[in-house]
Design brief:
Layout: H1 4-7, E1 9-16, E2 19-25, H2 33-44, E3 64-70, E4 78-85, E5 92-93, H3 99-102, H4 105-111, E6 121-128, E7 133-140, E8 164-169, E9 187-189, E10 192-198, E11 202-207, H5 219-224, H6 226-242, E12 255-260, E13 268-273, H7 284-295, E14 314-319, E15 322-333, E16 336-346, E17 348-356
Parallel strand pairs: 2-3, 4-6, 11-12, 13-14
Antiparallel strand pairs: 1-2, 1-17, 3-4, 4-5, 6-7, 7-8, 8-16, 9-10, 10-11, 12-13, 14-15, 15-16
Enzyme class: isomerase
Organism: Flexivirga oryzae
GO molecular function, one term: isomerase activity
Length: 376
């Protein structure tokens, strides 16, 4: 590897869904995970609540990294490793996927020449290294290049962009090894009935009412509610143990999803906590996991939905920034709950492409949490 401080590192900064992150080819980063993570901390400006000396945006949704390479898996075109970089703590974690950053992987792979386009629309099979599962992204590629402009709108992002259809395969038990990792549909934690589920993201699903809330509280109200956030943390830490994740006190998963009745024409409303900070929007895979739980007739939140669509599998999820449309087909078949389809429409946009220069190695912190999966 050349000197990153002197020569910099090739990087593309992209918005994916309602997140932003740094996209790298695996070959442009150190092969050793520990060295890679140290470099990413220097690039993002972590640890620092403002990430003032790096390119991170001082929030968890703007301190993300995608590491992409050609795949050796016959069922995939590219490999995508997602890394969540801490903001005020020197952490780099691969214990989760990110469905928002995933939206940018297909266009990035084309931009970097990892695969050729296929006419006006290109489909890319993406192996999500974190969970060893497959996502299939389809997006417009007129004139042989990704198109970012379009008329698709997603809540939490101003304006419109080209639609990217993402369908997921094999996400059940993505991290824990089972759709319902505790072996039960309902568990009781801290006096509250919860459903622990993992359909692309380990989450703890419960009703907002169980937390003494309506689900319509503002981000500022939730952020200021110290007692609530402490309780959310107690619940998710206990759930992490039950889900086989061990001590999750310093981890970003599982996430907590508080479900309440819809108030704006949707099917239900979800407030997400990551891990205890109220999310101003909602993560794709966390939403899919939560909706999958809601689809189970015995779950804690099945009856919260206004009504389930009869002639369509599209679920309208309200969240603090608006709506997210999901295609989740799941239900009982011969007494067994199965997931047939999980998909979403997102958008992405290339923000800049060039060279990023990490901060000096002097006083470099040791990562508190390093990755567990091999780089692709």
């Amino acid at each position: 590897m050349p000197s990153a401080e002197v020569d910099g590192v090739r990087c593309m900064w992209m918005r994916g869904g309602t997140s932003k992150g740094a996209f790298f080819l695996a070959e442009d980063l150190p092969a050793d995970p520990t060295e890679r993570d140290r470099l990413l901390l220097r690039i993002m400006g972590t640890p620092d609540p403002q990430q003032i000396d790096g390119i991170g945006g001082a929030t968890s949704v703007t301190s993300k990294v995608a590491v992409v390479s050609a795949s050796t898996d016959p069922d995939a075109d590219v490999d995508y490793l997602f890394l969540q970089v801490g903001v005020d703590r020197p952490t780099v974690s691969d214990r989760q996927n990110c469905g928002n950053i995933l939206a940018g992987v297909g266009p990035f792979a084309v931009e970097r020449g990892l695969l050729a386009t296929a006419g006006d629309r290109t489909t890319v099979r993406i192996r999500m290294v974190n969970s060893d599962s497959i996502a299939v992204a389809t997006f417009p590629t007129p004139n042989g290049r990704p198109q970012y402009a379009g008329d698709a709108r997603i809540s939490g992002v101003p304006g419109s962009a080209a639609p990217i259809s993402i369908a997921f395969r094999g996400t059940e038990g993505s991290v824990t090894g089972a759709l319902f990792p505790t072996g039960r549909v309902v568990d009781e934690i801290d006096g509250v009935a919860v459903t622990c589920i993992d359909n692309g993201m380990p989450v703890v699903v419960l009703t907002a009412a169980a937390l003494g809330r309506t689900g319509t509280e503002t981000h500022e109200q939730l952020q200021a509610d110290t007692a609530l956030l402490e309780r959310v943390d107690r619940i998710r830490c206990a759930a992490g143990e039950l889900m086989g994740l061990g001590d999750v006190a310093a981890s970003s998963v599982p996430k907590t999803m508080a479900v309440s009745p819809a108030v704006d024409g949707g099917h239900l409303r979800i407030q997400s906590f990551i891990p205890v900070t109220p999310h101003q929007a909602i993560g794709v895979l966390a939403a899919i996991s939560a909706v999958t739980a809601c689809r189970h007739p015995d779950s804690t939140t099945h009856d919260v939905a206004r009504s389930w669509p009869v002639d369509s599998s599209t679920i309208d999820v309200e969240h603090p920034s608006g709506h997210m449309l999901l295609d989740v087909t799941a239900g009982m078949q011969e007494g067994i709950f199965t997931v047939q389809r999980s998909a979403v429409i997102r958008t992405a946009r290339k923000l800049f492409d060039g060279t990023v220069f990490p901060t000096s190695t002097q006083s470099l912190p040791v990562p508190e949490e390093t990755t567990h999966a091999a780089a692709p």
